[in-house]
Write a structure and sequence with these properties.
Chain lengths: 153, 118
């Protein structure tokens, strides 16, 4: 029920997103060829199918194989150690199930978009910085050559 | 929305933005899933399957919250807690009965809501 409500909520908030819903981590893993950029994962994925991988096992597997994918964990557990464990294993954020979960997931998405923007900007500035450094070194080297050959000084 | 004793649909109304079809969809889902969860809890309690009983109670918890069944919030938490620690089997049995009785009252109110908004 929560999964259906979450799917409906995200579909209405982010109409440009393609949303796929799976009932087990294994099924999610089998569909990674759809190249998702965000995975919203239930901590208790083995609640219905007892032999299925747990949400935490799925998280560990996904982060190991597809590190670029951001995972938001959802759980009915409001225990801080569960949240810490998920974040330690690479989850971007942790949301507790309940009426506030939908707004909290939306906030996690917004935080994630800002985070990605910062990473993107940082990469741009790093590249610019590298280009500038090489340019300055080039100018100094040229000046040294001109000075040595008597063109300047 | 009328005043009901067991349920409070404020969250559902806000979540669906008063879309009756959407509300009916989630209420029907609850009416289908909750009795299954209650029966599963009863079986798991009889078998002493504490770990799975904890998981079933855990899954039912947010569903009760979505239907605004506040009176069962503590009870379902106790079931989850006791089953997690595999303690108080007799108390768990009583707690499951409380959830069942409370849910049965809620089901009646929810069916009335469905009839009204259909």
């Amino acid at each position: 029920m929560h999964a259906q409500m979450m799917e409906d909520h995200l579909a209405s908030k982010y109409p440009n997103f393609k949303i796929y819903k799976y009932s087990t981590g294994e099924e999610c893993n089998d569909n990674m060829d759809k190249h998702p950029t965000i995975v919203v994962l239930d901590y208790h994925l083995d609640a219905v199918n007892k032999s299925a991988r747990t949400g935490l096992e799925t998280l560990i597997h996904l982060k190991k194989k597809y590190d670029h994918i951001d995972v938001i964990m959802i759980s009915g557990q409001d225990k801080i150690d569960v949240a810490v464990e998920c974040v330690r294993e690479g989850a971007f954020d942790y949301v507790v199930k309940g009426p506030s979960a939908f707004v909290r997931t939306e906030q996690a998405f917004e935080k994630l978009f800002k985070h990605r923007q910062v990473i993107h900007e940082l990469a741009k500035y790093k590249k610019l910085n590298r280009t500038l450094t090489f340019s300055i070194i080039g100018i100094i080297a040229l000046a040294a050559i001109f000075w040595a050959t008597g063109i300047i000084g | 929305m009328d005043n009901y004793k067991k349920i409070n649909l404020e969250f559902l109304q806000s979540f669906t933005q008063n879309d009756n079809a959407q509300m009916a969809k989630y209420i029907n889902m609850f009416l289908t899933l909750a009795p299954v969860s209650i029966n599963t809890m009863k079986t798991q309690h009889e078998c002493g399957d504490w770990n799975n009983l904890r998981t079933t109670a855990h899954s039912l918890k947010p569903q009760l919250a979505y239907m605004g069944i506040e009176s069962l919030k503590e009870t379902i938490l106790r079931i989850e807690e006791y089953a997690g620690e595999a303690k108080n089997p007799e108390a768990i049995g009583g707690l499951i009965q409380t959830v069942e009785a409370g849910c049965n009252e809620a089901f009646v109110e929810l069916r009335a809501v469905i009839e009204k908004i259909a």
